[in-house]
Write a structure and sequence with these properties.
Helix content is 37%, strand content 20%. With 217 residues, the protein is an alpha+beta fold. The chain has a 4-stranded mixed β-sheet, with helices on both faces. Strands 3-6 form a two-stranded antiparallel sheet. It has a two-stranded antiparallel ribbon with strand order 7-8.
């Protein structure tokens, strides 16, 4: 990648697969963005680029590249190995970190506790131009995308028939709405909807506030 390639990404602006960061703030924070791209469709993080698209450059390219590698190795589970390139232009250095879509989804965040220990907590995904925490339903869908996931088995009963009738007239439904519609617990409603997503019958739409489901066709 050269400066012209970087300039194209900058001109397009931040989005689903591109994020700008003025600097490498901390490995723990950077890990969230690495995880979001790996759990979604992959992407590129440009360090040394401000939100207004101006190139400000980075301080020490070696030190900051090592922080990015640390973020992927120690704060992501499973670990993520971004491809890192340093591009120089007019005395300023920009770090481009490429994160491919993972086949080991979901990746979890490993924040450091006060005692120095780490345990897997949240899962992050990319929604439009933001990194957001994934819902339990999205996490289950990501688990199903893993090549080692067991095959899906679903049964179409009265609850599912009522769901399809609802979608014929309303187009979308949330977990809470489905639970209320068929008078079951939220947990059971969630499990049913995720199963239908895995079977290709429904599609889940991630949202910053609340996910919703629609027919897949």
């Amino acid at each position: 990648m050269n400066y012209k390639d970087i300039q194209v990404l900058i001109e397009e602006g931040e989005g689903f697969r591109v994020e700008f960061k003025r600097k490498v703030s901390s490995p723990e924070k950077i890990a969230k963005t690495l995880i979001a791209f790996a759990n979604t469709k992959g992407g590129t993080i440009l360090f040394g680029v401000d939100d207004d698209k101006s190139i400000v450059g980075i301080g020490s390219e070696k030190e900051e590249a090592e922080m990015i590698e640390t973020a992927g190795k120690y704060f992501c589970e499973p670990p993520i190995e971004p491809k890192i390139e340093i591009i120089s232009h007019r005395g300023l250095d920009v770090i481009a970190a490429f994160i491919p879509e993972s086949n080991e989804k979901p990746h979890y965040h490993l924040p450091e506790k006060e005692n120095g220990e780490r345990s897997a907590t949240n899962v992050f995904i990319r929604v439009k131009d933001k990194t957001v925490e994934a819902s339990k339903e999205v996490v289950r869908v990501l688990e199903a995308e893993n090549p080692n996931a067991p095959p899906v088995r679903i049964a179409i009963g009265d609850a599912e028939e009522r769901l399809f009738d609802h979608l014929d007239g309303n187009e979308r439904i949330t977990v809470n709405e489905f639970a209320k519609l068929v008078n079951v617990s939220r947990r059971r409603a969630s499990r049913s909807l995720v199963g239908l997503v895995r079977a290709g019958v429904l599609r889940i739409h991630t949202h910053e506030k609340e996910d919703y489901f629609t027919r897949a066709f």
